Amino acid sequence: MSPHDSLEAAIAWSVDQLPGEDRALLLRLWPFDSGFTWEAAAAVHPPGVDGAVLAKLASLVDRSVLTAEMSSGHVRYRLLETIRRHCRATDPDPAGTAAAHAEWARAFVAGRVPLLDGPRLGGAVHELAAELAKSPGRDRP
What we know:
By secondary structure, the protein is mainly alpha-helical. The protein has a single domain (3-132), classed as Arc Repressor Mutant, subunit A, CATH 1.10.10. Helix content is 56%, strand content 7%. The protein has 7 helices and 2 strands; from the N terminus they run ααααββααα. The protein has helices at 3-16, 20-26, 38-44, 53-62, 81-90, 94-112, 121-132; strands at residues 67-71, 74-78. Strands 1-2 form a two-stranded antiparallel ribbon. The chain is elongated and about 55 Å long. InterPro entries: HTH_77 (IPR058852).
């Protein structure tokens, strides 16, 4: 068994140990390669799963499959790249997840457009950069 196989097996085991609703949310967070807010996580939250997104995010942080970082006075969550790849590979509905992420991004940008002409320009640009930053070479389903 290669080290890569061992790491993938450890990640798969950790994800499999999660309560079902926590796992369902985790598997839909893969599109956020630059981190995300709880509001963004709520936008891709699986349909038919209880809506307690903050509690699920806290549980995922407690179980060390998600990190929480304070940035500009706000909490941002991030998946390690290896976990993000696993989530993408095992998401039961990657097209649905990608569509939910795209809808969230459209709504997020639309909400910031009015702020681009006025005194809140700098803050709006900072929010857009933080939320929509992409990793080089990112692939899509």
